[in-house]
Write a structure and sequence with these properties.
The complex is a heterodimer of chains A (about 675) and B (about 250).
Chain A lengths: L2 H17 L16 H8 L1 E3 L1 E3 L2 E3 L4 E4 L7 E7 L10 E6 H13 L1 H5 L1 E7 L3 H5 L35 E2 L3 E4 L1 H12 L9 E8 L3 H5 L4 H7 L2 E3 L2 E8 L13 E7 L13 H19 L10 E7 L7 H12 L12 E7 L6 E2 L2 E8 L4 H15 L6 E5 L11 H8 L5 E5 L22 H20 L8 H8 L5 H12 L8 H4 L31 H13 L10 E2 L9 E4 L7 E5 L1 E7 L4 E4 L2 E4 L7 H5 L4 E3 L5 E8 L1 H34 L2
Parallel strand pairs in A: 4-8, 5-6, 6-7, 7-9, 13-14, 13-15, 15-19, 17-18
Antiparallel strand pairs in A: 1-27, 2-9, 3-4, 3-26, 5-10, 10-27, 11-26, 12-14, 12-23, 16-17, 17-19, 20-22, 21-22, 24-25
Helix pairs in contact in A: 9-13, 9-15, 10-12, 11-13, 13-15
Chain B lengths: L1 H22 L5 H25 L11 H38 L7 H23 L23 H29 L2 H17 L9 H38 L1
Helix pairs in contact in B: 1-4, 1-5, 2-3, 2-4, 3-6, 4-5, 5-6, 5-7, 6-7
Classes of the chains: A alpha/beta (about 675), B mainly alpha (about 250).
């Protein structure tokens, strides 16, 4: 080829290559890869979500886990496409298919063996589609019921799926997780699908599976699990003088609980059950804190927020046990002085047509419960807007609904208590103990109404007089008790959503939260249980409640507030609040204490937990499953594309072939050149 | 994609270079040195270029002409460096020849000079393959694979290995052409090397288009084959010439 031709060809190629890309459309989404870690991030897509973990009790396990010690890698498939699978797959299940799916897995072993892992898709659109979803039982915690009818269906939407054991990992996808997985699945129409498959890799190895300990006793002995529990908080209004044992007034105990549960450990807001009750409780405390002259009233108000109630009424049982022991945690209280109990259960769904209706479930007929019911009626009537109705529960109910009061009743059948709920004969919360019981499932006006009526009821009970409606001063005092509605709404957003979540100003005023998203799951008891615990082991919500209640129930003695930097105050009747958010806290006069909440069957000694033998005097301990949670290292899920091994081997063979062909070519060229040189 | 595929991709890109190294280069230590120094020179050229282009990076991903400018400037710089490399080699050749005269040994044969040029070219090619393909290959040894949106038929690693192989071929043989062209003052050979390098570089821009690799990669291999053919023809001609020249003296 002569020079001109060669140059012409080469230049044409160069020009063509410059102008060729222009008429083509450059592909849309261009993610630039600037380094090998960038490439790896694009290859292995991390999926965000919430896991279902392994929980154990005395007789076995529930929950989910990787079946062995290694990661689970299984190809993705949608549930509706599942037909005659040969190897285990990762099934993508939508929220409305969830209950049927898990029921089928429990009943059909051959189907279960084809399940490698499960990804649950539950966007906000599903809540409207679903009639109800409750993975709990028909009668939650029926073994603790003080009455015999344990077949009664309090929770009609129940499917009981959270109480079964599954031998595969289950992961609830968050919004971003759903997008990531959908992006992978939408690539199905690409041409390379015949020799690749999209897989999900689950890293959800539970330590109890690794160690082979499959019940609470074994795993606590091996140290591969920790018992469920937390710290309950109680506070009295006005503060109790612990040293003087005279002039102890009868106590009106108001109870709420702060823990919920769901199929997924970290997505259990428990909005209606029980956090709506907790928020109403706090709204009432806030309203009552603005009332003067509490020390002149006849009765003592004590506020108690329990945790661990979902897992065998750990909070209430331990509280009652501590009362028996007259321990430091409950110094100033004594169970003989508790005259009546008012429990605030689910109150978030009482609103209908502008009227808020609540039901008062009483434990038994007694003068104390009648007093509470009368007080509720008076409080109801004291509102000029007349939009609150308190009705007595249906007499055909077998007894009180599942609540902490059941534990109080089992301990002492003579307990006079009233449980305030937004339902009568069965739960109106269609998402009881599910991940869908979130802020959209409660009505803030219902919570405000409940808080208002409870605040006034407690005031009436504290005055101890039946004749408050006639007295002019007390009715005006009653009328001045108002719940701050904006406070209630802010608190709902703090405890039941991730934005602002626990980073909201209200909570940050009292504590420095470790997480933004409130996880209302009770969690595990880490470290030694004590009435003066190491605050790093106490959950954000418990610490917030302690600081909040301490401030609201405090009295200013002489208007001098001193600061405390190390969490201790000079006077014994003072506590140091807000020591986390501000560097220096404030000392206030208040009786507010932590009470550890853990099973009465457990004992902590020498850095380990042991299970105590059954004790006939502790009837609830006899039926306590003693729940523990397996330890786990990291939990993560990622999705990536995998080539079939035939393709990989073909590439290897191609590489070897090219190398060998090149070698042969070089040998041939060498012999040619040698020949050319030797030819004479 | 596993270890098998990772090794496969590495062999696709560098297997022929390995064969060439084992069969030709490894026999003479001087060729190994030439290869290493040539690799170093190429890498240094990349460092200098990246230093020059640093203020303008990162380039916007959906506009082509900055990339064309980048390729053009890089090719011009590397061709200039190739000429300097040849100048350095000429000095070295003089030194070697005078040393050979002093110890009454034969001077460098044509084949020796061609082999040195080949080693130089291979050094450039290996550096290119290592830098643009091998360095990205670590994730290929893991379980996952990767497909680029703009070409979804073939994994990213496979395409990168195939393109690297083409460039190894182009660099290796164009150095031979260039050295002979500069030595003999042959204008065709002197011009064709930069032109081949530039067109190969520009052809990779075709891959920007959606499914552009279908056109870009075969055209790249066309350029590589042209390089190989031209080199082969040129070497054959030189060998015939030298045999005719030295023929009468050998008898």
């Amino acid at each position: 080829m002569g020079l001109p031709r060669l140059v012409a060809v080469a230049f044409t190629l160069a020009l063509v290559s410059i102008f060729l890309p222009l008429p083509f459309s450059l592909a849309g989404e261009i993610t630039s890869i600037e380094s090998v870690p960038d490439l790896q991030k694009l290859m292995y897509v991390a999926v965000d979500g919430y896991p279902c973990v392994r929980l154990l009790n005395l007789s076995g396990e529930i929950g989910c886990s990787n079946p062995g010690l290694s990661k689970v890698v299984a190809p993705l498939i949608k549930l509706k496409d599942v037909k005659d699978l040969v190897e285990p797959h990762t099934v993508l299940v939508t929220a409305d298919e969830m209950e049927d799916f898990f029921t089928r897995v429990s009943n059909d072993l051959s189907f279960a063996s084809k399940i490698g892992g499960v990804l649950i898709e539950s966007g906000s659109s599903f809540q409207q589609k679903l009639k109800g979803l409750s993975p709990d039982k028909m009668f939650p915690q029926a073994e603790f019921s003080p009455y015999k009818n344990v077949e009664y269906k309090w929770n009609p939407m129940a499917s009981s799926i959270m109480w079964k054991a599954y031998n595969f990992p289950v992961y609830l996808l968050s919004e971003s997780g759903i997008t990531a997985v959908q992006k992978f699945l939408s690539k199905k129409d690409m041409k390379h699908k015949t020799y690749t498959s999209d897989v999900a890799e689950f890293n959800m190895v539970m330590e109890t599976t690794k160690a082979g300990t499959h019940n609470s006793e074994a795993c606590l002995q091996e140290g591969t699990c920790l018992p469920l529990g937390g710290y309950s908080v109680w506070s009295s209004l006005p503060p109790i003088n612990v040293s003087s044992s005279n002039n102890r007034k009868p106590i009106v105990l108001t109870v709420a609980s702060m823990d919920s549960a769901s199929f997924f450990r970290d997505k259990s807001f428990g909005a209606d059950s029980p956090i709506s009750g907790l928020v109403a409780f706090l709204g009432a405390v806030d309203a009552l804190s603005r009332v003067v002259g509490f020390s002149n009233l006849k009765k003592q108000l004590v506020f108690l927020v329990l945790t661990g109630e979902t897992w065998g009424y750990l909070g209430s049982r331990r509280f009652l046990h501590e009362l028996d022991l007259h321990s430091d945690a409950v110094a100033g209280l004594s169970d003989t002085m508790i005259e009546t109990v008012l429990e605030i259960g689910s109150v978030g769904k009482g609103s209908s047509g502008g009227i808020n209706t609540f039901f008062a479930h009483k434990t038994r007929v007694s003068s104390a419960t009648n007093m509470t019911l009368d007080a509720l009626k008076i409080a109801q009537d004291s509102f000029t807007s007349k939009n609150i109705k308190i009705l007595s529960a249906d007499k055909t109910n077998p007894g009180i609904p599942p609540s902490s009061t059941m534990a109080f009743m089992k301990k002492n059948p003579q307990t006079s208590a009233v449980v305030l709920e937004d339902f009568d004969t069965k739960f109106v919360n269609k998402f009881y103990h599910s991940h869908l019981d979130d802020l959209s499932n409660v009505n803030s006006s219902s919570v405000v109404a409940a808080a208002s009526v409870v605040a006034r009821t407690l005031y009436i009970l504290a005055t101890g007089s039946k004749d408050t409606s006639s007295s002019a001063t007390s009715s005006s005092a009653l009328g001045s008790i108002h719940v701050n509605a904006s406070f209630v709404e802010e608190l709902l957003a703090c405890l039941l959503s991730c934005e602002p979540g626990l980073s909201c100003n209200l909570v940050k005023d009292y504590i420095s939260p470790t997480n933004t998203c409130p996880g209302n799951y009770a969690g595990v008891m880490s470290g030694e249980p004590s009435s003066n615990p190491y605050l790093g082991s106490v959950s954000d919500v418990s610490r917030f409640l302690w600081n909040f209640l301490a401030e609201k129930t405090s009295v200013q003695k002489g208007n001098t507030t001193s600061s405390c930097s190390k969490g201790t105050c000079s006077r014994t009747d003072q506590v140091c609040i807000k020591a986390e958010s501000n560097k220096e806290g404030t000392c206030v006069v208040s009786t507010t204490r932590y009470v550890p909440a853990y099973s009465t069957r457990l004992k902590y000694a020498d850095g380990a937990w042991t299970i105590l033998p059954q004790n006939t005097s502790d009837s609830m301990g006899m039926v306590d499953p003693v729940w523990t949670e397996s330890n786990w290292n990291t939990i993560s899920v990622q999705v990536y594309t995998v080539q079939h091994s035939a393709y990989d081997n073909a590439v290897l063979v191609a590489g070897i072939t090219v190398t060998l062909l090149a070698y042969i070519g070089i040998m041939v060229a060498e012999s040619f050149i040698a020949k050319a040189l030797k030819q004479d | 994609m596993t270890v098998a595929a990772g090794i496969g991709y590495a062999l696709l890109a560098l297997g022929p270079s390995l064969s060439l190294f084992v069969s030709v280069i490894s026999r003479k230590p001087f060729l190994i040195l030439t290869l290493l120094s040539s690799t170093l020179v190429w890498l240094v050229s990349l460092i200098v270029l990246s230093g020059l282009w640093r203020p303008f990076l990162p380039l916007k991903a959906n506009v082509v002409w900055p990339y064309a400018l980048l390729v053009l400037s890089s090719v011009c710089f590397q061709e200039a460096l190739r000429f300097l490399f040849w100048k350095l080699y000429m000095r070295l050749e003089d030194v070697l020849d005078s040393f050979a005269d002093r110890i009454s040994r034969p001077r460098l044969f044509l084949t020796d000079k061609l082999q040195i040029a080949l080693a130089g070219g291979l050094g450039h090619g290996v550096a290119h393959a290592v830098f643009f393909c091998l360095s990205l290959l670590t994730p290929a040894f893991g379980p996952a694979t990767f497909y680029v949106d703009r070409f979804s038929k073939v994994p990213f690693f496979l395409i990168s290995a195939i393109i690297a192989l083409a460039f190894v071929t182009i660099h290796t043989f164009s150095m031979v052409i260039a050295f002979e062209g500069y030595a003999k003052g042959n204008k065709v050979d002197q011009v064709i090397v930069p032109v081949i390098h530039l067109s190969a570089g520009m052809l990779t821009l075709v891959n920007f288009a959606s499914e552009g690799c279908v056109i870009g990669v075969p055209l790249l291999y066309l350029v590589a084959s042209l390089t190989l053919l031209h080199c082969g023809k040129m070497v054959w001609q030189r060998l015939i010439e030298s045999r005719n020249q030295s023929g009468p003296t050998l008898r």
